[in-house]
Amino acid sequence: MTTLAIHPSLLPSLGIAALVVWRLYSRIRRMVGRQRLSPVRPWLTVAVFPILLVYLAQASLGQPEKLLMLLAGAVIGTRLGRYGIRLTKFEASEQGRFYTPSAHLGIALSLLFIGRIVYRLAGLYLSGGSLSSPPSGFIAHPVTLLIFATLAGYYVSYAVGLLRWARSLAKA
């Protein structure tokens, strides 16, 4: 019987990966159809994803390529989020505030990120790698950082757009 030994330095990365997978699952599940605007959910998005980006940027200090990928991804994601807000159908009714996102854009970005993680895991598995020592660049590969930062920038920008819409309704 073989036991899987996990290097202690991998625990924070695995914790963050679990958080990201959970958030992605809930995001993808909510991207189809009309959604009630939550007063809390956009604020959590605006708080959590920038913290993750700062964590990744701090871990990438001294590695300009990785920092550049994080920055480029955040810029691309922000622009995509603004585009996504323009495609969103907003509706304020007596039952509450609702929005219908453009599912194609958000789901495509999420699947791109999930596909990248699956690709990296498959590469690790096929190379005979193990989780007994931290795999060099598993989480912090420049392409993975680019895709994650794009997704984070999209979600934050989209959440800011939702908050602006809600604020404009409150003023009216």
UniProtKB/TrEMBL annotation:
Name under which the protein is recorded: DUF1453 domain-containing protein
TM regions (residue ranges): 6-22, 43-61, 67-85, 97-119, 139-163
Record's keyword annotation contains Cytoplasm: no
Keyword Cytoplasm (UniProt): no
Domain of life where this protein originates: Bacteria
Originating organism: Chromobacterium sphagni
Entry keywords, A to Z: Membrane, Transmembrane, Transmembrane helix
